[in-house]
Amino acid sequence: MIPITRPNIGEEEKKAVLGVLESGMLAQGPKVKEFEQKLAESCGVNNAVAMNSGTAALHTALHVLGVSNEDEVITTPFTFISTANSILMQGAKPVFVDIDPKTFNIDPDAIKHKINEKTKAIITVDLYGQLCDYDKIIMIAKENNLKIIEDACQAINAKFNGKMAGSFGDIGCFSFYATKNICCGEGGAMVTNSDDFSKRAILFRQHGMSGLGKYDYNDVGYNYRMTDISAAILIEQLKKINNFTQKRKHIANFYNNELKEVEGIKIPFVVDEGSHAYHQYTIKVDGFRLSRDELIEHLKIKGIGCGLYYPKPLHLCENFKKLGYQKGDFPVAEEISTQVLSLPIYPGLEESDLNKVIKAIKEVA
Ligand SMILES: *Cc1c(COP(=O)(O)O)cnc(C)c1O
Fold first, then answer.
1. Candidate of 82, 83, 151 to mutate for ligand 1, largest count of ligand atoms within 8 Å of Cβ
2. What is the DSSP string of 154-223?
3. Strand pairing of 119-125 and 147-151?
4. How far is the C-alpha of 295 from the C-alpha of 312, rounded, in Å?
5. How far is CA 310 from CA 41, 127, 190, 304, 337, in A?
6. How confident is the model at residue 209, as a pLDDT?
7. For the chain, which ranges sit under pLDDT 50?
8. In this structure, are strands 171-175 and 147-151 parallel, antiparallel, or unpaired?
9. CA distance to 4, 297, 343, per residue, from 256 (Å)
């Protein structure tokens, strides 16, 4: 069986974990601090605050930007649930807008039409590892005095005009969940150039404890701390990140060359300004000899795992229909969700596996 993804954990990570286990300091400690410094450096930003998930990072970002009850936050319906759930966690309203039919990222022009006096922020999502059109989005945000939270959970190490993922928003969020491009099982972080946002995030991560006196609190907070065990793994993963991204790009190029002429399959569209991190390699199945679902079934029989990200745009899920959304609201997202198919991609994927995937697709083309 060729899985759709597999974490890449080496001897270095194992040794680092043992080191932490022997140190006696299992919770948040020096390894977390070290990881934060290295993450901030690698993103070209001033501060990183490590957390125990990407969802925690998104929630924290909205809190420190002051998003609360009655506010509206514009985002894409074609994303993982936590992007929108984090808005609900703050009591605010997720305002969805449609996506660009080529990149599947949020459509900047559609953002403009949904801005009103309640709009506080935009959460952009760098889907599959490709950055959004930040030239346009940052301009719209500036003109309307909106904050940007960059959900870069899938895009660590991607670039746009040479600038690193996570550095485009007022705050950028990463996830280190087991399937992400660097991972530790469960983990996340927010990055920001603002010392103020960073300080407030540190309070929110730990019960709102002020740091002035222990057991003194000047804000609400959660327990969103990362463990030193996770941070020790991530320090090693971060050393390998360029190598991981190169391998993902190599696999994507291989797929591109093999699939670009196959009728009914569209290879990923990559913008000129971008450097894609290929968290997913996602094709569009449209006019292929088999339906998308038949193709998935065929690949499964051949022992090839694949994924649907995402089968249902969020506005059509029960919890968001309650807000008044309905079928037809975002036609591009609705259509794309019936066509996308993600193929196996991870640094340890062998050439022989890639050939099997290609052969399995071509034999039914
Ligand atoms: C993975 C992911 C998250 C959430 O990350 P967790 O660490 O699982 O909480 C948020 N947004 C997007 C787009 C993701 O892919």
1. 82
2. T-TT-EETTEETTSSSSEEEEE-BTTSSS--BS-EEEEES-HHHHHHHHHHHBTTB-SSSTT-BSS---B
3. parallel
4. 18
5. 32, 11, 24, 19, 6
6. 87
7. none
8. parallel
9. 17, 22, 12
Residues 133 and 107: beta-carbon distance below 8 Å:
no
Provide the β-strand partners of residue 123: 75, 149
User: Does this model's pTM top 0.90?
Assistant: yes
Atom number, ligand 1, closest to the C-alpha of residue 175: 7
Using the 8-state DSSP alphabet, how is residue 263 labeled?
A: T
121: enclosing H helix or E strand? strand 119-125
Peptide linkage before 310 cis (omega within 30 of 0):
yes
CA 86 to CA 108: how far, in whole Å? 21
CA–CA separation, 328 and 298 (whole Å) = 31
∠ CA 74-77-78, rounded to 5°: 130
Q: To 5 degrees, how large is the angle CA 125–CA 276–CA 184?
A: 70
Residue type, 186: E
**Structure tokens that stand for 83 in this block:** 């992007």
pLDDT of residue 218: 81
Instruction: Give the residue from 93, 294, 66 showing the smallest Cα distance to 201.
Output: 66
Residues 6 or more apart whose Cβ sits within 8 Å of residue 101: 332, 336
CA of residue 147 to ligand 1 center, whole Å: 20
188 CA closest ligand 1 atom index:
7
Alpha-carbon distances of 28 from 83, 151, 187, 203, 263, rounded to whole Å: 25, 24, 12, 14, 52
Which of 65, 34, 39 minimizes the C-alpha distance to 175?
A: 39
